Amino acid sequence: METIFHEQQEGSLCAQHCLNALLQAQYFSPVDLADLAKQLDESEREQMAIAGEQSEEYKKFLKEPSSNLDDSGFFSIQVIDRALSVWGLGLILYNSPNPVAIAARINPVEEKAYICNFRGHWLTIRKIGHQWFNLNSLLTGPELISNTYLSLFLKQLLEEGYSIFIVGGNLPECEADMLLKIAPVKQQVKPKLINENLSVSSNQPMEEEEDDQQLQKVLAESRHADEHDDQALQKALQLSMEGYAWEPLPGPSVKSSSLGASAAAGSETRQSSSPPPESPDPENVRQKRLAYLSRLESPKTCDKSEQNSLENDTTPSNNQKDISELEESKKKESSKPELTKDEENTSQSVTRQTYRNT
């Protein structure tokens, strides 16, 4: 690819780039093409003067600007054709009924080169060696075109509004043509448009700045999230410590309270289930008293077990008092002299009567 001559666009000098790419060398400059344009303007003026320099057509022609060049560097098809005629080359319209054009439309690979124009822009498509290349000056480099794709590419240009011209004649020999006949090239990456590269290069700092701003924003959000998490963690730890220091654990307290409640309930149940103490039967008490007094007749033979049963009997406090009075009276009687049998019987009857009254 390095041996292929290719000029990138400068201003509006696409006609110059087109011709030099076709000839594969820098044969023409803007000055050379401007001279050719002036020659064409003079030739046209002479043709108009034939009708008379005083004619209105001639005066109007002189007032009009040149149609072969302008201040931007544009050159007309007539200038390009005049430049090619210096090398013995000519241009044939691709869509014309010319037999060469008809043959080219049938098999475009058989031709040597094409020149295309669209809205004042000129570009060259040329065969170098046995391969075809798009030498558009708006590209960053030559673009390889396969033989199969050439006809489709030309049809695409026609559909887009391009005017296509077939270059007739023998092109001058060039180094690239000889080298590529020996060693054809392979293109891995297609060249890009110059404007695309410029837009990419101009937008790259802005994109980098936007990426930096986005990165800073993400970092700031991350730091804010970390601080929020730290605050939440500190708050949770503080609440946990406060609960451990001042609040009783829920498990034991609930258990103890439940145990206390169950114990109280059990106590109430036992109290409610146990029968209330029965009041002593007066007749039963009287019978026991009589039995006791009868045993007093022989104090030495008093049954100890009956005394214990009498003492263990559940009676009111008044009965206990009566028992103590009987014991005292027993002691007094034992200290008295022995009575006769009649006196003893009289005494017992008096005592029984006293207890009955009580």
- Provide the low-confidence segments as ranges: 199-203, 244-249, 251-265, 267-274, 313-317
Helical content, roughly? 55-70%
Overall pLDDT metric? 75
Ends distance: 151 Å
| General shape | rod-shaped
The main pleated sheet reads as: 6 strands, antiparallel
What's the alpha carbon Rg, rounded to whole Å? 69 Å
Give me the number of helical elements. Answer: 13
Class based on secondary structure composition and strand pairing: alpha+beta
Order of helices and strands: HHHHEHEEEEHEHHHHHHH
Q: What percentage of the residues does DSSP assign to strands (E)? A: 5-15%
User: Order of strands in the sheet with the most strands?
Assistant: 1-6-2-3-4-5
The total beta strand count reads 6
Structure description:
- The protein is α+β, with helices and mostly antiparallel strands and 358 residues long.
- Helices cover 59% and strands 9% of the residues.
- It has 13 helices and six strands.
- A six-stranded antiparallel β-sheet has the order 1-6-2-3-4-5, sandwiched between helices.
- A hairpin with a 2-residue loop joins strand 2 and strand 3.
- The longest helix has 53 residues.
- The protein is rod-shaped, with a radius of gyration of 69 Å.
- The termini are far apart.
- About 11% of the residues have low confidence.
